[in-house]
Amino acid sequence: MDFAQITQKVNDLHNTQRYEKTFDLPRSFTAEADKADSFTIPLTNEGPFVQESYNIRYTTNSKKITKVDPDDPSTWITEYFCGVKLKFKSQAAGNAQSSDYIPVQLIATPGSDEFPRYGARPFFYFYPKGDALILEYDNRAPASLNGEEYEMANEKIDICFNGKIYPLNG
Amino acid sequence: MLKQFNETFFDALVNKRGSLVLGVDKQNEICKNAKNVRSVDYVVKIEVNNGVANPLSIVTRANWHFILTNAAVYWDPSNDVADYPRVGLNFPDYTPQSPFGTLPADVYTVPTNLVFGREGAGRFEEYKNLYYSLGQRFVIEVHTKATKPNDYRRGYLMLTGLEVNLKGDC
Description:
The complex is a heterodimer of chains A (about 170) and B (about 170). Chain A is mainly β and about 170 residues long. Helix content of chain A is about 10%, strand content about 45%. The radius of gyration of chain A is 21 Å and the shape is elongated. Chain B has about 170 residues and is an alpha+beta fold. Helix content of chain B is about 15%, strand content about 35%. Chain B has a 5-stranded antiparallel sheet with strand order 2-1-8-4-6. Chain B has a 3-stranded antiparallel sheet with strand order 3-7-5, with no helix packed on it. Chain B is elongated, with a radius of gyration of 21 Å. The N and C termini of chain B lie far apart (about 50 Å). Classes of the chains: A mainly beta (about 170), B alpha+beta (about 170). The interface between A and B is large, with 51 and 51 residues.
C-alpha cells in the first residue's frame, strides 16, 4: 500500500464515520441491598443506536449463611454470592427485552481470577434516535428453602453496551 | 513502515475486511434491518419437587418469528447440593416433529460449584441455532427431572434467540 492508497483509505474512513460509528456505552451502578429499582440511561441524540452486545461484571458481597447447628456459630457456613437480577427495556418500544428478570450470572461476562474473560454477550437491539435504555434491577433475597439465611449487600454492577451509532444527516 | 502501519493499525481501524465505504443508502438499510431483527430472552422459573418438575411453556411474541439460538440454566443459590436435576426441552408444536426430542441439559447449565453460579466458559455457544422456526408461533415445553427423589430444586431457564419481523413495518 502506497501513500496515495492510504490517503484514500483515510478519506473512506472519514466518509464512513459520517454514517456509522462504533460506540461503547459504559455504565456502573450500585444495586442496593434488599431493593428493586430502575433507572434510565439516555442514549445519544446523534442518531439511532444499534446495540450488538454487552459485557457485565458484578461483585459478590451478599451472604448465604447455612446454620448447621443454629446454636453453634462454629458450624455456620457463610458463602458469598450476587443475587442481582436484571431486565432491560427500550423507553420508546416499551416492551422489555426479556420476559422476566434474569439472574446476572446468566448474562454476565465470565471473568475472574480463575477464568479468563469470555467476551461480550451478543444481544442485538435497535434504539431509535433520542431513545433511552431503562434498566431494572432486583437485589432482594431469595426465599429460604432449607432454613438458610441471607444477608443481602450492595452490589456494584459494571455494564458496557457495545454497538454502532448511525448519525443522521451524515 | 507504511506496510507495518497498514497491517497493524489501519486495516483494523477501517474494519477487518479492510474496505468499507458507507453511504446514506447503506445506513438506511442497516437501520431498517436492525429494527426488524432483534434479540430476546425468555426466562422461566424451574421448580423440581420430589422428582417432579413444574410444567412450563413459553409463548413467543405474536407476529414475530423466533429463532432459538441458545439455552442456559442457572440454579438458585438456595439449592444446597451439587447434584442438580436434569432439564429437558421439548418442542411439541414444531412441525415436523422436533428432531431433538427432549434435550439433555448438562451442557447448557451454567457451570457451578457446590452452591453458587460460577463464571466459566461454555455458556453462550453450546447450541447456536438449536432450533429454527419461521412463520409459526410456537410453544416450548420444559420438562425437568430430578436425579433422585425427595429433592427440591429451583432455578431459571433462559432461552435466547432472535425475533424477526418479516413485514418490515414495525
